[in-house]
Structures are given as structure tokens and as C-alpha cells.
Amino acid sequence: MSNKWLSLSLVAALSAGVLAGCGGSGTQTNAEPKQPEPSSQPKSEPSPSSSESQFEEMKIVMGHIQANSQDSPYQQGTQKFKELVEKATGGKVTIEIHPSGELGGEREMMEAVQLGTIDMMLASTGPLGNFTPISNAFDFPFLFRDRDHAYKVLDGEIGDEVAGELDKSGIKVLAWAENGFRNITNNKQPIKKPEDLQGIKIRTMENKIHMESFTAFGAAPTPMSFTELFTSMQQGVVDGQENPLNIIVPSKFYEVQKYLTLSGHFYNPALFIITKTKFDSFSPELQKVFLEAAAEARDYEREFIHKKNEEYLDVVKKAGMEIVTEDEVDFDAFLKASQEVYQKYDKEYGDIIRRIQAVK
To answer: Is the pLDDT higher at 151 or at 69?
Structure first.
């Protein structure tokens, strides 16, 4: 068993005492999301069955920020969703996927889904706290013990509770998917303990908990849109970033980064979301199609990530990145540094954090 999981008991132990103590959001780009051009391609539709003929013809525009790649979980997850919806409706409902941030950064797209100018997206939880603050509870460092713990939380009562809060802001959650456990890359030096991050400019998501955590670790967190990240690392605007392997590899960050630390410091969910008014306008039958397709696509996307992780590691090794393994990371030191973040936000998130930790 790795040092990481041996150390995780410290979070629960310290939370019981430290979290009982005391009780800035990210930046946002001003660029307007590009709106997709109407499709001029004629569709060849199968002859509908009696169950399929009840659906009206419509096109759903769906975006995400990951690459249009066979290695990209978001692309594979949205393609699976598209396949399932189009099959279930006999081609009456088509899903038009826009990868690679074609429709804007994540916060821009999420705002567009809220307003209804984009129908759907597969998103990380990075900007989610700007729409429902309770979702920030998922973003605390070293909170989830492993994947199974995360799935039980997200697919259970707590995940439903957060989804219900998002409903109030005009965003409907169809299913919780996955980004995964996040790892640190940089161009300065190997990162084994918080002291190694002193002064290093790390791009973070537009998320206050993530920024506070990296400040506690000693880094200089720099929030920016994912679509700007590769160029910013290439030009030295930032020294590094933190993401799951399934984003690091398809995005080819190994071309502009030298060191990878398998820190797993945050577990980052993803989510299939749709404009609530759009979903509410659907017939009950079509709502069922979308919910079932999202649940199946969620499971497919999660398993895709799990199976690809070793392959992703092989890619970065062959690319020449120097890897700091889990056994080399001083998790006790990172956990100790994390406690000031838990303490600072106990008034806002302490109750739900303890509920998450209690899920078995």
C-alpha cells in the first residue's frame, strides 16, 4: 500500500479536531464563447419504430475543453452519450459535439449552458463553485480515499444534494463523470514535499479551494483558462500545472514540462450538464433517454480513464519526463499543510466534508 493511503487517515483524524475550529474566487475571461454554425449536412435517418416516432427532431449542441482525441476521456464520454441518444431516438435527436474549447473556456461554457446559448457540456468542477458554492466541498485536498469512495459520494445522496442546488441556478446535472486524481507537473524541479513548491507558478483551475491549497503548499497559484495553458507553459508565463494523467497526456503537456509528481492531491469529478429549461421542455420519454444515456456514458468514461492510466504513464516516460512516484511523495507533509485550508473553510463546508469522509 502506498504512503499516500497510509497517510490519508490523518485527514479524518485532524478534521475531527481542526475542522471544529474557525469558520477569492478565480478570474474569468471576458471572451464570448463562439456559437456553432448550423449543420448543413443532411441526415439519413432509419425508419423509426413506434417508440422512436414520439420524439421531435432537434439538434443539441454540446461542448467540452479536452482534445478531439482517442485518448481523451471527455471526447470518448461525449461520443458515447451521442451514440446512445441518437440510437434511442432513431436519429430524431442529434448531438453536435464541440471539443477543444471551441465554444470557450469552461466557465464561459458553463455560463452559456446556464443561459441556454449552449445546450450541454461535459465539464470539470473547477468553475462550479461560481454557480453553487456547496460544490466546492468536493475540491478539498486529499478528501477522497480512492475512486470507489468518490463514486459512492457522487452517485449517492451527497451528489444528488449538490445537483439539486445546481438546479436552482438553471443547470441540470444528468450524471457525475470523472476527471480523476490530479498530479503536478512543472519545469523547475522534482516536487516531493510542499517546500519544493516554494515560489513556483502553478496554473490552477478557477476555484478558490484549489488556489488556497496551493498557497498553503507554498506555490504561487495562477488561475487561467485551460485553453491558454499549453502556450503559457511553453512561454514561461507559468512554471507548471496540475491535472489528471488523462488530461496531461492527450494535451501533450509532456512536450513543455519536465517533471511529473504523482501526488493525487485532489480528486476532480466531471459532470454532464444541460440547460435546465431545455431539459424541462423535453417529454418524460426524452428526459429518460438523456438520463439513462448520461449514466451509461458516465460509467464508460470512468472505466476508460481507469484502463488508460498505465498507458498514459508509459507515454510520459517515453517522452522523457522525470516522474516522482507516490512512494517518493511526503504525503504527511502535504496533509499537514492542507489543514489550514480545512480550518479556514470549516464554517462553510465542515459539515458536508465530515459527511463525505463518513461515506464507506
So the answer is: 151
